[in-house]
Specification:
The structure is a single chain. The chain is an alpha/beta fold. It has a single domain, classed as Dihydrofolate Reductase, subunit A (3-Layer(aba) Sandwich), CATH 3.40.430. 27% of the residues lie in helices and 29% in strands. The protein has five helices and ten strands; from the N terminus they run E-E-H-E-H-H-E-E-H-E-H-E-E-E-E. Strand 9 and strand 10 form a beta hairpin. The longest helix is centred in the N-terminal third of the chain and has 13 residues.
């Protein structure tokens, strides 16, 4: 079975996406050589990259014009953009689906050792979480409080419980928690 892994950065107060336009939404995220090396390591473990549509648009407009180890992997790996409506893309090795749940369920059911890596994409993550389709969460907590913005987990959802399988502290102060969802008990 393939695994579906979400990797995302949040603030201490759980905000995934800050307020503002363009780069202002993510200018609080720390990136240094250690995080870049980690990004390469993470991308090397992936067999497919998966993005919600807003994240896909940003990535597809940025990465094709870059030339570094991260760009090489971002542009070379198969990619899936998830949109609620039919769309097209010209990004190398990418396709678009309007049925993310069915596509991810099919990816997950493949009989291989593949890893579908969801990068960012809080709306998509919430939808897939609701359907039990994410096998591992890698949440990098950035030591900043934003106080407003888009939370990673949508308000009003059912309680989620996780088992922590690993943690990693980066020199920049970022702490990544790797966890797997516990089976949800019926109430």
């Amino acid at each position: 079975m393939s695994r579906v892994v979400l990797t995302v950065m949040v603030s201490l107060d759980g905000i995934f996406d800050g307020l503002g336009e363009g780069g202002e939404r993510i200018d609080w995220m720390r990136a240094d050589s250690e995080r870049l090396d980690y990004s390469v390591e993470l991308l090397d473990s992936a067999t497919t990259l998966v993005f919600g549509w807003r994240t896909f648009e940003g990535m597809s407009s940025y990465w094709p014009h870059q030339s570094d180890p991260v760009a090489e992997r971002m542009n070379g790996l198969p990619k899936l953009g998830c949109s609620r409506s039919p769309r097209s893309t010209s990004w190398n090795n990418a396709r678009v689906t309007s049925d993310a749940v069915a596509e991810i369920a099919a990816l997950r059911a493949r009989n291989d050792e593949g890893i579908a890596l969801i990068m960012g994409s809080a709306d998509l993550a919430n939808s897939l979480t609701a359907h039990g389709l994410i096998d591992e969460y890698r949440i990098a907590i950035n030591p900043v409080v934003l106080a407003s913005g888009v939370p990673l987990f949508a308000p009003g959802r059912s309680r989620l419980q996780f088992d922590v399988v690993d943690t990693r502290i980066f020199a920049s102060g970022i702490v990544e928690i790797r966890c797997t969802p516990k089976p949800q008990l019926a109430s």
